[in-house]
Design goal:
Four Helix Bundle (Hemerythrin (Met), subunit A), about 70% helix, binds heme C
Length: about 140
């Protein structure tokens, strides 16, 4: 009896397990999350952060960018081939940028620019339609 109750409870838990919901298209993730947050890091010098609030914005952008990599790995978004490895590259660089933001180290963020840009290009060359092959 107790076993049956347990099995029923377990089945109910599985049935209610929250599932991922893909809200944005790949293009929207790029334009609305990844592009603005990475731009904030690429062009950090344009409005060099000074106050605590400024640095909080840098942290927001770096963390959002790093975590957005996880969005690229969700079911329905992840693709075959080198997609996951390319995404990991972006996550790793953005994670370093987040740590640099926590340390309020603008130079470190600037030093990461090339690696960050390469992480975008690496994926785009393979997966972004029309990219790098002339329009
Ligand atoms: C793992 C793969 C991957 C990574 C990493 C990646 N992108 Fe993309 N990106 C794509 C794909 C796929 C598209 C094409 C989306 C579409 O049109 O459906 C795209 C398109 C774009 C677009 C054009 C969107 C449009 O519809 O006009 C921009 C802008 C962009 N990416 C910015 C970036 C930036 C900036 C980075 C790095 C910080 C980055 N992406 C990293 C896969 C990636």
């Amino acid at each position: 009896m107790r076993l049956i109750a347990f099995v029923l409870l377990a089945a109910a838990a599985v049935a209610q397990a929250p599932s991922y919901q893909n809200i944005g298209t790949m293009s929207q993730l790029m334009i609305n999350i990844i592009y603005p947050t990475s731009d904030a890091l690429f062009y950090i010098e344009r409005a060099a952060p000074k106050t605590e609030a400024d640095w909080n914005l840098v942290k927001n952008n770096a963390l959002t960018l790093a975590e957005s990599g996880n969005l690229l790995l969700m079911p329905g978004r992840v693709r075959e081939g080198e997609w996951a490895a390319d995404t990991k590259m972006m996550i790793d660089v953005a994670t370093l940028a987040f740590k640099a933001a926590q340390a309020k180290d603008m130079q470190k963020i600037l030093d990461l620019s090339e690696d960050l840009s390469n992480s975008c290009i690496k994926c785009h060359l393979k997966y972004r339609p029309g990219y790098g092959r002339g329009k």
